[in-house]
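Box S1 | Example of a co-folding query
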Amino acid sequence: RALLEQLKINDVIQGKAGLGGKNKKDAGDHKFWATQPVPHSNEDRGEEDGFIEPSKPREEVRQDPYPLPKDFEWSIIDIVDPVQIKELYELLSANYVEDDQAAFRFQYTAEFLEWALKPPGYHKEWHVGVRVSSNKKLVAFISGVPITLRVRNHTVHASEINYLCIHKKLRAKRLAPVLIKEVTRQCNLKGIFQAIYTAGVVLPTPVSTCRYYHRTLNVPKLVDVKFTYVPRNMTIARMIRQYKVANTPHLARAGLREMEDRDVSAVAELYARYMQRFDMVPLMSPEEVQHQFLSGRGRGERDAATGRRDGQVVWAYVVEHPETHKITDFISFYSLPSTIMGQKQHKLLEAAYLFYYASDVAFQDGADERGLLKHRLQELVGDAVIIADQAKFDVFNALTLMDNPSFLQDLKFGSGDGLLNFYLYNWRTQPLAGVNPTDDRP
Ligand code: MYA
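Box S1 (continued) | Returned holo structure for tetradecanoyl-COA
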């Protein structure tokens, strides 16, 4: 299945990305994408990293919005207005990404959307909606938020495009290209000419492809809703035992605690240093670290039983060394529920998604070769799984990026059938290592 908020990359699993999946069309079949500054094949990537089309001065950027079919009008969505967030929430809840069997559909909460669409330096003009002129109903949306990427050795000021959604009744009318061109124009007006985006579908041309993995937590519910099956040689009771997790995080005694505002600069430094391991990485200022890991922590006290706060989107923990008080590690995950379609008993699949993490074990000589980092990440992510279980999540998801492949199997994550393709707009670079989508389950 398809999408995620998190942009990060893997150079861990070997294999060539971007070979295309089942639904790959030839470049010539893409009437819209054939006109866009993206590589049209892996052979079209050239030797040197860099832009495909040069940036333009503001005066040369198209000044008027692109024309929409009659009866529709553009509408900048004001994410600060509770009424408009609710309209966006309702559009996405009914029309956004579904899995191939149409059994589950992402159900981003209003709190999630606010967190995702309002990072430091966001532009309200990049939250582009389409309404029916007569009754003002919101029927389509696309968004961008600013992001600074390092792609190999280049710093790229880009926009992260997400939440492209068209009402089910307006599909296949070539509206998506108009939305994409309009958000591109809005980005260009702010001096931004590169973008990053992810999609389950194969378009020209992925820079990397990752596979989803799932760690079962709530066995009976996942079986009931057919997210997972009891294998033939198993009973449900055995399966429950197999996926049982401890009651408290193992690193609690080593100094694991919730991240707080006072940790921001230490986490920002640790993150920056750890991410040097990878070829495509968002660079984050301390303000961005504060936003990504703390601004979505919810309101009020944590519930005594689950540890959840009202409206909590992100969970972030640090390990503070008990003697030196140094922050040695951090780990985070976010909540993204899905609607369960056509089910009476269960309406919502509560999924946690592994987000960023870092450990200073990576900086020790030979930490990779000696298996030290793998062991530490297993402890850290294992604890995130325990915390998510306590918080009553049904499943914990992760992609085959960053160092994830080193611990997924040991932590009982199973490979899913979803792939996520990563794309860059107007930036050429050789494919980054990812899963080979033509291989079956790595
Ligand atoms: S990915 C999530 C996308 N959303 C969903 O899957 C939700 C459910 N589906 C829908 O709402 C619709 O089916 C959508 C397409 C809106 C997806 N990314 O209007 P159409 C191309 C890019 O007749 P519809 C996310 O949010 C398709 O290949 N292009 O089709 C990241 C065809 O072009 P071509 C896509 O089904 C978005 C054309 O659209 C996608 O009614 C990143 C058909 O248009 C897709 N996911 O609507 C966007 N799906 O003929 C790119 C289809 O050439 C950003 N298409 O094959 C680029 C950077 C822009 C900023 C640049 C700044 C400098």
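The first helix runs from residue 82 to 95. The CA atoms of residues 266 and 398 lie 25 Å apart.
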